[in-house]
Amino acid sequence: KILNTGGGILNAINHLNKEPFFVINPDTIWQTNHLLDMQKMEVKFKQNYCKGLLLVVDKERSFDKSFKGDFNLYENKIVNQGKKKQYIYTGIQILAPEAFDGFEAGVFSINKVWNKLIVDKMLLGEESKEKFYHISNLNIYKKLLKIFPNETN
User: Fold this and answer.
1) Are 84 and 49 in contact (CB under 8 A)?
2) Counting CB atoms within 10 angstroms of each CB, which of 28, 48, 67, 125 has the fewest?
3) Rounded distance, CA 85 to CA 78, Å?
4) How do 77-79 and 72-74 pair as beta strands?
5) Are the beta carbons of 4 and 107 closer than 8 angstroms?
6) What is the DSSP-derived secondary structure letter of residue 139?
7) Per-residue pLDDT band at 153 (split at 50, 70, 90)
8) What whole-number distance in Å separates Cα of residue 128 and Cα of residue 41?
9) Residues in Cβ contact with 6 at an 8 Å cutoff, skipping those fewer than 6 apart
C-alpha cells in the first residue's frame, strides 16, 4: 500500500533507531555540492532545538521556471506567511522521529507534519546556493538529458 511521504516515513520510523535522519527525494538531480548543504543542515539541526529542517532554494534558482514558491524564511524558520512564497523545497530534509508524535499510521502527506512544525516554530530552513534541477515532468526530463546526459538515464 502506498502511504505517501508522511505515512511512509512514519512506517519506517518503527524500524529505525530514534536518531534524526535524512529523507532525500529521488526526483532531483543531486550534485556533489549538495553534500556540503547536508553537512550544514546537520550542524544547524544539532545546534538548534528543532524537529525538522528543509533544504530550500530561492525560486529563481529553479531550472523549472513553472515552480511557484513553497515557503518563506524568517530568521531561519520556515513560515507560510505572505502571498508570495520565495523558497522552494528541494527534496532534502532532516527530521527527528518526534516530529511524527501524534500522527497515526496510514496514508498522509509530509505537509501535515511540516504544517504542525511550522505552527510550533520547529521547522527550520537551510538555503542552498545550488541550482535546483527537479525532474517535474517529461518535458523537463528531456531538457535535463541535454544538460546531464549521464545522470538522468
Assistant:
1) no
2) 48
3) 11
4) antiparallel
5) yes
6) H
7) low
8) 10
9) 100, 103, 108, 109, 110, 111, 112, 113
All three cell numbers of 29, joined, read 538531480
Q: So what's the pLDDT on residue 151?
A: 62
What is the length of the chain? 153
CA 98 to chain centroid? 17
Nearest to 53 by CA among 130, 129, 125, 128: 125
The three cell numbers locating residue 69: 514558491
- Tell me, yes or no, if the pTM score tops 0.70: yes
Between helices 110-119 and 4-13, what is the axis angle to 10°?
80
- CA 146 – CA 102 distance, rounded (Å): 45
The residue-averaged pLDDT of 92-110 equals 96
Q: What is the pLDDT of residues 4-61, one digit of tens each?
A: 999 999 999 988 899 999 999 999 999 999 999 999 999 999 999 899 999 999 999 9
Look at residues 74, 104, 99 and name the one whose alpha carbon lies nearest to residue 87.
Answer: 74
139's CB contacts (< 8 A; 6+ apart) are none
The position carrying cell 534524526 is 20
